[in-house]
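Deliverable D5.2: sample structural annotation.
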Amino acid sequence: MPKPEIMVLIPESTRKARGGSADSPEVDSIAASLPATARAKLEGLREEVLHKSPQGSVRAGGLLPAYRRFQGNMYMSIPDEAWAKRAPGVEVIIASGLRGVVASRDTVPSYALSMAEPTPPFGKMNRWWHDRGLPGILASYLESMQPHIVVDLLSLEYRHSVAGYAAGVKGIDVRTIDFPGMGRASQPLRGERIARILESGTA
């Protein structure tokens, strides 16, 4: 798969599809694209979250691609055909309480964690991930992929988890899009913007 020209950063959703395929191979393009040191750091943090999360936080039942796992209002506003017929130069990167960051086609289990919620013993997950270096990991990934443009559609709680990443990338146009004062009502608008980028291949 060619390196994308546009990367879109979006949040996961609290609402997630159940089930998946137990036979599906794990796909983890984020870790595969990281330099060895950053990959080891991300994998270590993921293992810590997996093993310390409250019992039942990660559900059995197999894997789904991330873009199919998440089902919140933002995701419901992205038509299936936008994902299926996406422009080849576009990738979507999702901030995830379980995995830190995942690419849209990367496979994930169903889980109950959220960057926006406090989770024992971590406290608020966005702060936990941020303080353990997720901004640097994301910057390292973007540096390795070298897209022309990053469109940051993260909501406030999720943006905190990677705050500062843009300072770690050079030669990449980072465009932050906000919806002031709209709160959760912005989710359908975020979804519509993502769909337009997927379909058009332009930011």
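Annotation notes: Residues 6-200 form one domain. The chain is about 35% helix and 15% strand.
The annotation will be released with the project's public dataset once the embargo ends.
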